[in-house]
Amino acid sequence: MHTNLTKSAIAATILALGVSGCADMSATQRGTATGAGAGAALGALIGGTTSGGGSNRAAKGAVLGGAAGAVIGNIWSKRMEQQKQAMEQATRGTGVEVSQTSDNRLKLQIPSDVSFDTGRSDIKPNFQPVLERFATTLNENPATNVVIIGHTDATGNPGINQPLSVDRAARTRDYLAGRGVNPARITIEGRGEREPIASNNDNSGRARNRRVEIYVAEPGRG
What we know:
Oligomer: single chain
Number of helices: 7
Strand content: 5-15%
Structural class: alpha+beta
Number of strands: 6
Distance between the termini: 30 Å
Radius of gyration: 20 Å
Largest sheet: 6 strands, mixed
Helix content: 40-55%
């Protein structure tokens, strides 16, 4: 039993180290993956050594530990809470949604009427104050990393929408960099039209799908 248990813990730890070392993962993803693997290893050990343990209990412990570790991998500190509150205050009444994700990231979902006009990637004037305040909070909490994801509606074709979504994320990054945020902390992605949150069959739905999502994480430090 202990041999199988040890193998489970070692396998989970190796997985965590291997996944967290992938070059194409963001710092946020690495923090989540490392936390998940470490939690799985600890869960396997605890599950297998408690009363009535064994391979089944070790496996269940690994699953539960991995779920908990994924959250712990990105911490929610007092600074993160302060940043969330600051952005809630700065965006009140603008339509920007500010939330805490299940894996302890700060999420800003910015609709098209705030961020970008249809088919454009230049930042609108009413988006600038939001980014100004956001840049200030990022500079106040330099341990965080940022992922900016651009989205479009289904108007046009993927050959147009994909680069447009990337350009929107890049323009947002560049604006923050111009306000003192180290661009090395920022990862950008474009999802084109592939992840709609509403129907593309009407103007209202298309407007919701044209958006920018920003995620902020403070990776756990051991």
